[in-house]
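Following up on my earlier thread - several people asked me to post the actual chain instead of describing it. Fair enough. Here it is, all 86 residues.
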Amino acid sequence: MSFFDYLMGADARTALMGRMMQKVGVDKQLRVVADHVAVTNRAVDRCRSCGHQDECAAWLDETEHADHPPAYCRNGDLIARLQSIR
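Reply from S.P.:
Thanks for posting it. Predicted structure:
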């Protein structure tokens, strides 16, 4: 079981975060950043406090691959930083 498989089972909002990280292709980068557990926990907290869960779920269902998350994504800055370490 991968780290994101675990996160995806934790709760629906955390699952959205895991799906988003995979959709934009940064799930592997997140695991290798310094203090990745703390970074992941903060990202999960941002996702859990977002008010766009329904929109996010629909976007994830409709989008096969994306270069960036939707504008409302509270982890957009983190995703951009992770994309820069590809």
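The mean pLDDT is 86. That should answer part of your original question.
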